[in-house]
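Appendix B, Record 12. Input sequence as logged:
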Amino acid sequence: MGRLTTHVLDTTRGTPAAGVRIELQREAAGGFTTIAEASTNGDGRCDAPLLGSDRMQAGTYQLLFHVGAYFRAALGREASPFLDVVPVRFAITDADGHYHVPLVVTPWSYSTYRGS
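Logged structural output:
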């Protein structure tokens, strides 16, 4: 059963990033359309997969992680993080696969990978 999941880790504080707004977009007709939105829980994860087996399709997607608002709230309103919205564009080629796309982030840098 295919699914898409994610989580966000704040390496500045060494904790999961709770309350990060995430948009999932799918490419169609030359542009991207938002098909799901969620926020991370206390463990830095979404409460449910962003895509479940009923909605998984091959195609090009992007996750938009709204980390600027998270860091302003976590570090104080005066904080001025370098990053605001982190886009991660990727392809789903196997609609039956498990795609896990985590974000490891600070106010100034990020990393991602295909997890398990």
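The longest strand covers residues 31-39.
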